[in-house]
């Protein structure tokens, strides 16, 4: 149990995978290798002088690859020992844990390597090309018959772990001013990082292409408010990098994926599966009938985290449940009767959904989660989206979402959604996702000339053809898991085709970032309330009187106050959390040039500039289409692609700017 409660930094240091010895590179700091920081060699290496004298092809818009210093590679595989008791074949790990069981309806003399590989790939849900059958350590030929020699047969599985995630620390002596194309300086906000010497920063080395086709070897760092990207320095200047890699993030547990599991998009951390959990609908419907809580006409709150908050200096924050996750992917709810305001529902609803989500959560890489043998915090929510009856042929009842990320003061790193009821009268309502990574840095004058290449065709190619965005159809039983740090999401237009009220009901688990400071969990938040309740219960007071005493003592909020606070929080949450816009705060150019970083920007980062800042519109022919990404689609079944079906003349300035769908207009309490 001590391992579950070990601090995140300590657990990460113990489990991280060191770099292979034959792939180590010179990453020592000048302060540690004896080199004087005033020496000529150090000044030459750390100086930007070589970056100020560069050929024209290094400007933004030259469409040339900028190569960074090399990173060690990572290849994972596992061995599975096979035991044959035909028709049954059992696969075990090298420590004896059963991984799979399959049945073959053929005699052993007619089993070929291909046949066995095909059967194993089906039960594992793995690519057949990732499997190699071995006999006494020697690979077997694809068409080789196994015959009677079934001893010492094993299969080697090459694991697809996604992009390598490096664990880094911040160097103490290096400037937060980094590059994206040599004329473009990116100022990295050091508040996102722990202090020097604490190696908990996750960074993905990736060759990333902008809309205008500039390509960089970059570091990608996923945080609550923004995705940081800057160019990985050249080999010559690797020791001047802001980050110092320490090793690979611990290998994710290889928990078996459910049948029909699917990843969506290209490079997007979005996974879905279909589950039948019939008890959840019965339990949630009974609870919804008891509470009958509809703060606004389209919402019924079944489990409302806005009514279970803790007051802090920054404002009210959600109170999470806690789950202990073991190495086999099983979870245990922590806290007993103090696990949540509704502990029975937390045990019977939140717990099975979390367990079903764990194999999908283990697939996330942006960022990656430390899950096994750890205590995980998650906020429990259940909601019903209600669409009124259709009124006439020309007046459809509809629901339209807006781009947003989940969590306000909370650091929600991932989300698991389970749709336990979807009315058959509902049509549309796909969930659409788009990456929060910078789409481009547009430059004019001395900084480069790519702003004029930011046009409709290049933007469409990046977003639609290259699948930087994706959409997931929602049906009853859909389990959807995604990274809240990498992606913004919205519900596309959904209509009710029937003459009666229809709803889509779901449970949400907001997974809190294990790398952030833990929030006060429900087992602590409810401790005083439960202790005084137990003290007063022997007096024979009825429950409502005990509740009144706790409210007068300031231990338990009154129902009226809780709902008033909930309405204030809901009003905040129904406002857009950001928009697709340009940003100059964190980038600047050398000389007389001008650069603008464009992408989805969280409103919390827009304090010093108006959200409608549209300077590139005079230089970039695709600017109206870029800004129109903030619009809700006008047609059923359309998402981002609808923007590119229109010409620039069809997009007025007002249409191209962010508009709050009428369903979501904030209300005043």
Name its key features.
669 residues; 35 strands
In short:
With 669 residues, the chain is an alpha+beta fold. The protein contains 14 helices and 35 strands.
Question: How would you explain this protein's 3D organization?
Answer:
With 669 residues, this protein is an alpha+beta fold. Helix content is 19%, strand content 29%. The strands form 8 sheets. Strands 15, 16, 17, 20, 21, 22, 24, 29 and 32 form a 9-stranded antiparallel beta sheet that branches. Strands 1, 8, 11, 12, 13 and 14 form a 6-stranded mixed beta sheet that branches. A 6-stranded antiparallel beta sheet has the order 4-3-2-7-5-6, with helices on one face. A hairpin with a 4-residue loop joins strand 12 and strand 13. The longest helix is centred in the middle third of the chain and has 19 residues, at 343-361. It is globular. The two termini are 45 Å apart. It comes from Durusdinium trenchii. This is Fe2OG dioxygenase domain-containing protein. Residues 18-48 are annotated as: Disordered. InterPro entries: DUF4246.
List the helices and strands and how they pair.
Layout: H1 2-5, H2 8-15, H3 40-46, H4 49-52, E1 65-66, E2 76-85, E3 88-92, E4 98-103, H5 113-124, E5 131-135, E6 138-139, E7 153-159, E8 166-170, E9 177-179, E10 184-187, E11 201-209, E12 215-222, E13 227-231, E14 243-248, E15 262-263, E16 270-274, H6 278-291, E17 299-303, E18 309-312, E19 315-318, E20 321-325, E21 331-333, H7 343-361, E22 374-387, E23 397-399, E24 412-422, E25 426-428, E26 431-435, E27 440-444, H8 456-465, E28 469-472, E29 478-483, E30 487-491, E31 494-496, E32 502-512, H9 522-525, H10 527-536, H11 543-552, H12 559-573, E33 578-583, E34 587-589, E35 594-602, H13 623-627, H14 653-656
Parallel strand pairs: 1-12
Antiparallel strand pairs: 2-3, 2-7, 3-4, 5-6, 5-7, 8-11, 8-14, 9-10, 10-34, 11-12, 12-13, 15-16, 16-29, 17-22, 18-19, 20-21, 20-22, 22-32, 23-31, 24-29, 24-32, 25-31, 26-28, 26-30, 27-35, 33-35
Region (Disordered): 18-48
Protein name: Fe2OG dioxygenase domain-containing protein
Biased composition (Acidic residues): 19-38
């Amino acid at each position: 149990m001590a391992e579950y409660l070990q601090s995140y930094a300590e657990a990460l240091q113990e489990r991280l995978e060191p770099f292979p010895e034959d792939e180590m590179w010179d990453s020592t700091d000048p302060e540690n290798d004896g080199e004087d920081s005033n020496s000529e060699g150090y000044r030459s290496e750390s100086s930007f002088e070589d970056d100020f004298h560069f050929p024209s092809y290094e400007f933004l818009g030259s469409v040339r690859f900028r190569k960074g210093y090399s990173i060690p590679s990572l290849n994972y595989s596992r061995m599975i020992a096979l035991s044959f008791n035909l028709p049954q074949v059992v696969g075990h790990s090298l420590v004896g844990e059963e991984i799979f069981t399959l049945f073959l309806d053929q005699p052993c003399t007619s089993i070929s390597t291909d046949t066995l590989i095909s059967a194993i790939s089906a039960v594992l849900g793995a690519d057949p090309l990732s499997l190699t059958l071995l006999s006494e350590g020697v690979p077997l030929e694809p068409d080789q018959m196994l015959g009677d020699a079934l001893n010492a047969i094993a299969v080697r599985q090459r694991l697809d772990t996604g992009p390598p995630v490096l664990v880094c620390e911040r160097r103490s002596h290096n400037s937060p001013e980094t590059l994206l194309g040599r004329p473009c300086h990116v100022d990295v906000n050091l508040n996102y990082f722990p202090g020097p010497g604490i190696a908990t920063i996750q960074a993905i080395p990736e060759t990333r292409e902008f809309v205008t086709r500039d390509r960089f070897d970059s570091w990608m760092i996923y945080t609550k408010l923004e995705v940081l990207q800057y160019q990985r320095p050249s080999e010559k200047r690797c020791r001047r990098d802001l980050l110092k890699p320490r090793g690979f993030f611990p290998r994710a547990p290889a928990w078996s994926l459910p049948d029909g599991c699917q990843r969506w998009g290209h490079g997007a951390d979005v996974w879905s599966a279909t589950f039948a959990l019939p008890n959840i609908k019965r339990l949630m419907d009974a609870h919804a009938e008891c509470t009958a809580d509809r703060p606004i006409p389209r919402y019924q709150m079944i489990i409302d985290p806005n009514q279970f908050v803790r007051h802090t200096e920054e404002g009210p924050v959600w109170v999470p449940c806690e789950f202990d996750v073991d190495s086999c992917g099983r979870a245990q709810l922590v806290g007993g009767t103090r696990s949540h305001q509704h502990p029975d529902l937390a045990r019977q609803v939140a717990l099975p959904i979390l367990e079903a989500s764990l194999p999908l959560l283990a697939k996330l890489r942006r960022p990656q989660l430390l899950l096994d043998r750890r205590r995980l915090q998650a906020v429990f929510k259940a909601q019903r989206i209600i669409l009124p009856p259709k009124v006439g042929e020309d007046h459809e009842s509809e629901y339209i979402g807006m781009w947003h990320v989940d969590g306000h003061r909370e650091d929600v790193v991932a989300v698991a959604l389970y749709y336990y009821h979807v009315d058959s009268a509902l049509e549309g309502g796909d969930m659409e996702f788009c990456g929060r990574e910078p789409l481009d840095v547009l430059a004019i004058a001395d900084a480069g000339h790519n702003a004029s290449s930011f046009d409709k065709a290049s933007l469409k190619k990046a977003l639609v053809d290259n699948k930087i965005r994706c959409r997931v159809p929602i049906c009853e039983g859909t389990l959807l898991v995604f990274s809240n740090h990498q992606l913004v999401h919205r519900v596309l237009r959904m209509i009710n085709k029937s003459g009666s009220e229809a709803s889509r009901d779901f449970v949400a688990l907001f997974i809190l970032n294990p790398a952030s400071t833990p929030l006060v969990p429900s087992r602590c938040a409810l401790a005083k309330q439960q202790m005084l309740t137990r003290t007063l219960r022997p007096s024979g007071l009825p429950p409502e009187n005990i509740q009144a005493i706790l409210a007068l003592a300031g231990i338990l909020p009154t129902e009226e106050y809780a709902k008033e606070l909930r309405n204030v929080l809901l009003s905040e949450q129904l406002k857009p959390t950001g928009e697709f816009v340009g940003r100059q705060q964190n980038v600047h150019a050398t000389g007389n040039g001008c650069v603008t970083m464009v992408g989805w920007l969280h409103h919390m980062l827009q304090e010093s500039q108006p959200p409608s800042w549209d300077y590139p519109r005079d230089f970039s022919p695709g600017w109206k289409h870029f800004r129109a990404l903030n619009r809700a689609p006008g047609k059923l079944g359309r998402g981002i692609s609808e923007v590119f079906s229109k010409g620039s003349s069809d997009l007025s300035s007002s249409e191209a700017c962010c508009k709050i769908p009428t369903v979501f207009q904030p209300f005043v309490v």
